Amino acid sequence: MAFIPLQIPPGIYRNGTELQSAGRWFDANLVRFYEGTMRPVGGWRKRSDNTVTGAARALITWKDNSADPWIGIGTHSGLYAMRVDGAVEDITPAGFTTGIEDATVFTGYGNGVYGSQAYGVERQSLASITPATMWTLDTWGEYLVGCSNADGKLYEWQLDFTTPTAAAAIANAPTGCKAILTTSERFIFALGAGGNPRKVQWCDQEDNTVWTPSTTNQSGDFELATTGTLMAGKRVRGLSLLWTDVDCHASAYIGQPFIFSFEKIGSGCGLISPQAVAIVSDSAAFWMSKSGFWMYDGSIKPLPSDVSDYIYRNINTSQSSKTYAVHNSEFGEVWWFYPSASSNEVDSYVTYNYREGHWNIGLMGRTCGTGRGAFEKPMMFSTDGYLYEHEVGFDYEGGTLYCESGPVQIGAGDNLMAVRELIPDELNQGEVTALFKTKLYPNSAESSHGPYSMSNPTSVRFTARQVKMRVQSNGNNNWRVGTMRMDAVQGSRR
């Protein structure tokens, strides 16, 4: 008789085949690994009874000069403001150009390698996609500013909620823009200004109505040396990072006469979507590109991922412009929400825990969101059009919480192990069940045993050389799971 600990490292490993995930967790949903235990992610609750018109593609929270919190929401067809009590007002500017909810994929003939597909069938051209409409939102003091990449104008809303007054185009600002950014020095950057995909144009310091350079102001413009199209900008300590779809540039304030310096700091690391980047502690950035994950912590470097093979096989590339990143500072996580290959809308997520260095995956339909800041908890918009507060309670609207391992070898060489008991390691015993999937050989048929409700010890009966374990919540979700142990004896050779 021997106790065999199921010492499986935290995080999901999903690169390559299932066998390559041996001894690791392989699949999961709505669980996290944190401080040495597996546990459920926090639940969510509806923040407002009001929906917005259109698909929400940007969310920002901030506090005004009276310390009252606000929420700004950009959809493909409008702009909205929400108070702390959940009241929503439509502040869509007059003359706003409505965008598109879903990316448009153009098809045609003569695309691709000759003979690679059936004759007479139109091919999808990934080079000819009009992306889903995305907003970028920021603040100018206590005011909300934003830009929709389908409309191209820069707008400002001055917190007039009771009339209400719609947001208005910023006077003298360029049009045809792709995104907006307020720098730490209180300049507004218009990215892709004037329809030029490489042009950065900025207003005078502290005056967002002055955009024409002169000897008496600090407005100006600069054209990046890039083959890409500007998509987004974010503030980090001492710099503004500017992303195109192919590379990344850094901009720093240097004063007269050039005002800002610009330097390309990374190639082949462009954004997969305008909202696929999250800033952490004002000093680091994590983002998703079309081919991998990246980070900036003073320099740009690839972010090795244990799930990248799975993610890039699972993502709907034609709708990847909807990908959205959210920083969950409470647990040191960056979440990316994306549409899976079987969906045109966001329905899946991948997370990276930058404190502990592991990855996770699951299912959740959130089109945009923001972490803790003006509000105590993360706020996210669901595909049902409502705003939800996250990491509260244990309501998952019917979602199944589970984590399943890859194959774990328990029998040495040709030996079988007969497992008789499971010794659980739980904070609140009985709040999860365990299911075991066993094989005698790597390519033999798989047998299932359980699920077993946890007791100490738990009586189980199976014989195998390798086993997979699935831990699943039974509905009581305030649980923690540590290292399970199996009480086993060596069986016969077969």
What does this structure look like?
The protein is mainly β. It folds into two domains: 2-40 and 402-493; 44-390, Methylamine Dehydrogenase, Chain H (7 Propeller), CATH 2.130.10.10. Strands 2, 35, 36, 38, 39 and 41 form a six-stranded antiparallel beta sheet that branches. A four-stranded antiparallel beta sheet has the order 1-42-37-40, with no helix packed on it. The chain has a four-stranded antiparallel beta sheet with strand order 5-34-33-32, with no helix packed on it. Strand 33 (379-382) and strand 34 form a beta hairpin. The mean pLDDT is 92.
Short description:
By secondary structure, this protein is mostly beta strands. It has 2 domains: about 1-40 and about 400-494; about 45-390, YVTN repeat-like/Quinoprotein amine dehydrogenase (Methylamine Dehydrogenase, Chain H, 7 Propeller), CATH 2.130.10.10.
Chart the SSEs and their pairings.
Layout: E1 2-5, E2 25-29, E3 31-34, E4 37-40, E5 44-46, E6 56-63, E7 69-75, E8 78-83, E9 88-90, E10 104-108, E11 123-130, E12 135-140, E13 143-148, E14 154-157, E15 168-169, E16 179-182, E17 188-191, E18 199-202, E19 220-223, E20 230-236, E21 239-244, E22 247-255, E23 259-267, E24 277-280, E25 284-288, E26 293-296, E27 300-302, H1 308-314, E28 324-328, E29 333-338, E30 348-353, E31 358-363, E32 366-370, E33 379-382, E34 387-390, E35 402-405, E36 408-409, E37 415-423, E38 432-439, E39 447-453, E40 458-464, E41 466-473, E42 485-493
Antiparallel strand pairs: 1-42, 2-35, 3-4, 5-34, 6-7, 7-8, 8-9, 10-11, 12-13, 13-14, 14-15, 16-17, 17-18, 18-19, 20-21, 21-22, 22-23, 24-25, 25-26, 26-27, 28-29, 29-30, 30-31, 32-33, 33-34, 35-41, 36-41, 37-40, 37-42, 38-39, 38-41
